[in-house]
Amino acid sequence: MTLRLAIFDLDGTLVDSLDDLTTSVNHALRLAGLPLRSRDEVRTFVGDGARPLIARSVGDHRERMEEVLATWRVYYEEHLLDQTRPYPGMVEVLSRARCPLAVQTNKPGAMARRILEGLGLLTRFAVVLGGGEAPPKPDPGGVRAILEKVGARAENAVLVGDTAVDFATARNAGVAFVGVSWGIVPREELVRAGAQNLVDRPEELAAFLS
Predict the structure, then answer these.
(1) What SS3 state is found at 49?
(2) Is the pLDDT reported for residue 210 higher than 80?
(3) Residue 1 clears pLDDT 90, i.e. is over it
(4) What average pLDDT does the structure give for the chain?
(5) Domains along the chain?
(6) Contact status, residue 118 vs residue 78, Cβ threshold 8 Å
(7) pLDDT value at residue 209
(8) From CA 9, how far away is CA 205, in angstroms rounded?
(9) Contact 71, 32 (CB under 8 A)
(10) Of 7, 127, 162, 187, whose CB count within 10 A is highest?
């Protein structure tokens, strides 16, 4: 395959944002008087966007959903770069890539771009598409929109992600998939989903991006 485009997931693939997400969720829950969530719990809630994250966090208290979501959004917008950092080695991988790069995430697009800009990475990507700007993954609409914007074909593209949702997105869009094991879900979950190309360190991505 002649690679013409690499599309990256954000949280759990490019950046480790779990601590900031956990802190912001618990800030909103605390103000609402609801039980707090552990870091491991929040890990299982992440990946489908802001609304599902908060819906899972409030649990049975669905009547507080909109209140908690609004509080979370304000706090997270102010603190989304407190502890969030690129995974070690990822900046070097991006700098050595020999094809155009893009990001598709279920995180709200404005937040995703703020994170990438704050980390000095935004200009490395031809397109950054977030939640509310395309159908949420695993719908293939976002990948297809990125392909069109970049002028690439599905058979010449790869999606790099850390969850079974990312794998399903790649499959639905007809693009290749590379799974990373350092993200939100255990490696075994990607294997069970059917992913075959798996890497355990960012530098191993170089073989897929050259």
Answers:
(1) coil
(2) no
(3) no
(4) 95
(5) 5-16+84-209 (3.40.50.1000), 18-79 (1.10.150)
(6) no
(7) 82
(8) 14
(9) yes
(10) 7
pLDDT at 105 > cutoff 90: yes
Instruction: Provide the CB-side half-sphere exposure for 107 (13 A, CA).
Output: 27
Token representation of residue 155: 């058979």
pTM above 0.70, yes or no: yes
C-alpha dist (Å) from residue 29 to 38, 46, 82:
12, 16, 19
Catalytic residue flag (residue 9): yes
List all residues 6 or more positions away from 156 whose beta carbon is below 8 Å from its beta carbon: 1, 2, 3, 4, 5
Cβ 161 vs Cβ 171: under 8 Å: no
Q: Is residue 191 scored above 90 in pLDDT? A: yes
Given a contact cutoff of 8 angstroms between Cβ atoms, the answer to whether 17 and 112 are in contact is no
* DSSP notation for 82-146: SS-EEPTTHHHHHHH--S-EEEEEEEEHHHHHHHHHHTT-GGG-SEEEEETSSPPTTSTHHHHHH
